[in-house]
Every structure is written in structure tokens, then in C-alpha cells.
Design goal:
- Helix 1 packs across helix 2 and helix 6 crosses helix 7.
- The radius of gyration is 37 Å and the shape is rod-shaped.
- The protein starts with 5 loop residues before the first strand and ends with a helix.
- It folds into 2 domains: 111 residues, Conserved hypothetical protein from pyrococcus furiosus pfu- 392566-001, ParB domain, CATH 3.90.1530.30; 82 residues, no CATH class.
- 21% of the residues are buried.
- It has 9 helices and 7 strands, in the order ββαββαβααααααββα.
- It is 55% helix and 14% strand.
- Strand 6 and strand 7 form a beta hairpin.
Length: 249
């Protein structure tokens, strides 16, 4: 039986070993070399898991380098050379793995699974894990900062929108303190502005104002034994003029 490599789509291959076993910079360098040479010099060994899918038996580093190459250039990095473990070549490939691979991969069918992880491998894993953790933490911090900034900007926009609201919207939807603030900006004394706001809110509980004339005709202030308009027609014109000028600025 002649042993030969096959080209397999990288996306059809999975690997049980964690990517964090390998340093990002080493994978990056290997990926670029794979793209430049248009292939991997050390084909990985895979086992068929279905008609068109495979899992890595040996060559975890090469697989992740190829996966990174595909991320960089999906077209050039689409395929990778592999040895496929079939019934007729499984024994030979397994023997070669034991004899010629200096580093044991972490796939499920290799070597002695009870041999444990060396201290160098563990140190490398922990170092890479810390680097990845720091990178993820930095990304999360940036995302959180961006979210807070976006929420602040939305709040500012909402605030500006309230400041620029149409007079009818102010009288129908603003709370008492907001109405008072708007009336003061139109020249009302604070005490009177508070009374007008109270009258407006009391009246709109019965029915929303359909026009500014509704505000003039229905919102009343008690004076002596009778009632007077909270806002006169003339004053409403002043309000419209003042608020429209503040909106245009």
C-alpha cells in the first residue's frame, strides 16, 4: 500500500486539543508560512468521523496553524494536506506516530494517555492561558467602556430632545419639574411656573391637550373666588417664540 496525502477542507476538520496549548505568535508565524508556501510541510493525521468530516489524530499545532491561515486568507488556506487513517493504513500510521513524532499531541488515540502532562507543557499552557485571559479581559473592558459611553450619549440625546420638544409635547408629556424649567426659560417667575405646571398636569389627567388653545382654555389658576387662565394667549405666543429660538440654537 502506497502512503499518500489527501487534500481536505480545513473547515471539515475538528481537534480535541485546546488551542490555548499553543502560543498565538507561533501559530501566526506558522500560518503565514503555510500561505506563503501554499501548503504544510508536515501533513497532519486525521481520522474520518463521517463521510465528509475528520478529527485530528496527530498534528494539533499544524491544524491550528492551518485554521489560522484560513482565517487570514480563506481562499489560499481553504485546503490542507493530510494523511487519513483508514482501516488498511491505521496500523502503519500509528507506528509512525510512535516512532517519528517527538512531541505527543493530545488527541485521544495517541501514545500512552496515562503518561501525564510534562511541566514544560503545563507551563506553556498556563502562560498562553494567562495571555488569552488578559486579552479577553481587555476586550471586555473596552466593550464595557463603549457601552457606558453609548448609554451616556443616548441619555444626552434624549435630554437634548426634551429640551427641543414642541410646546404641545411639553405640556402633554413632561413632568412637573421639566415644565417648570421650560416655563422659567420663557420668563415666568419660579413660583408661578410651579403653579402653572400643577394646573397643566391636573387638567391633562382628564384628557391630553389636542392643541395649544386647549392649554390656554382649560388650564386654570385659582384667583380669589374664581379662576383665571394659567397661560394667556399672548403669553403662549411668547412661549412659542422663546422655545423655538432655543431649539434653533
Amino acid at each position: 500500500m502506497k502512503l499518500s496525502t489527501s487534500l481536505v477542507a480545513v473547515k471539515k476538520i475538528t481537534c480535541n486539543a485546546p488551542r490555548s496549548l499553543f502560543a498565538d505568535d507561533e501559530l501566526e508565524d506558522a500560518a503565514k508560512l503555510i500561505l506563503e508556501s501554499e501548503g504544510v510541510i508536515n501533513p497532519i493525521i486525521v481520522r474520518r468521523t463521517s463521510l465528509k468530516s475528520y478529527e485530528v489524530v496527530d498534528g494539533d499545532f499544524e491544524y491550528y496553524a492551518a485554521a489560522r491561515a484560513r482565517e487570514i486568507d480563506p481562499k489560499k488556506g481553504e485546503m490542507i494536506g493530510v494523511f487519513v487513517v483508514e482501516e488498511e493504513n491505521e496500523e502503519l500510521l500509528t507506528q509512525q506516530i510512535k516512532l517519528f513524532r517527538k512531541q505527543k499531541s493530545t488527541s485521544t488515540i495517541r501514545g500512552d494517555i496515562n503518561s501525564g502532562i510534562s511541566s514544560d507543557t503545563l507551563d506553556k499552557f498556563l502562560t498562553n492561558f494567562e495571555l488569552r485571559f488578559d486579552k479577553i479581559a481587555h476586550q471586555l473592558l473596552e466593550e464595557a467602556t463603549a457601552k457606558v459611553k453609548l448609554e451616556y450619549e443616548i441619555k444626552e440625546l434624549k435630554s437634548q430632545r426634551k429640551e427641543q420638544a414642541e410646546p404641545l409635547e411639553v405640556f402633554n408629556n413632561f413632568d412637573a419639574s421639566q415644565i417648570v424649567k421650560k416655563l422659567i426659560s420663557a420668563g415666568f417667575e419660579a413660583g408661578k411656573a410651579a403653579k402653572i405646571a400643577e394646573a397643566i398636569i391636573k387638567e391633562r389627567k382628564n384628557k391630553k391637550f389636542e392643541s395649544l388653545n386647549d392649554v390656554v382654555n382649560t388650564a386654570k389658576l385659582k384667583r380669589g373666588k374664581g379662576f383665571v387662565k394659567a397661560i394667556t394667549s399672548e403669553k403662549m405666543l411668547d412661549i412659542i417664540d422663546t422655545w423655538s429660538h432655543s431649539t434653533s440654537r
